[in-house]
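Reading a protein record of the kind used here takes only a little practice. Think of the row as the fold of the chain written in a discrete alphabet. With that in mind, consider the following protein and its fold in token form:
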Amino acid sequence: MYYSTDYVFDGKKSAPYVESDAPNPLSVYGRTKLHGEAAAGEHSWIVRTSGLFGPSGTNFVRTILRLGKEREALAVVDDQRTSPTYVGDLAAATRELLERPPGIWHLAAQGDCTWAEFAEAIVGELGLDTGVRRISSVEAGRAAQRPTYSVLRSEKDAPVLPHWRDGLRTCLERLGEV
């Protein structure tokens, strides 16, 4: 089992990426994950997923939770679209996936949003008065280039994960925030 990323794609498509789409990573991170896929080999389950979040570790939800309690407003990128995926949902889908043949599989939450829309949902679920200012990737000034569109869907018989909003509510419940 090898976990890969939506960052193996360049984001130039305007429809969800499926398993048969040709990768074209924009960053070193995306290229190393693609090399990892090749090293895992055709007899492995290769799971491409996106925007992972959960109740532990460093991730977008925990960061917004912390900053939303500290600041009146947050500046968040609004020109990158993805499918944020709750790790608990990914784990359940992974177990189910093992009943299917090895190969490349896309497992990501249903629905999609920009990072700013995701931040607004987090703040809204928490009932915080924190504002979210939508900014561009250029304005954010990140060193690594990221795909502007990296929504993943499966063209195979992959397990279907719940909507990202359901995963967010579950995560916040696990954190004791709602």
The CA atoms of residues 51 and 126 lie 20 Å apart. The helical segments are 28-40, 60-70, 87-97, 115-126, 137-140, 164-174. The radius of gyration is 16 Å. The chain has one domain: 2-174.
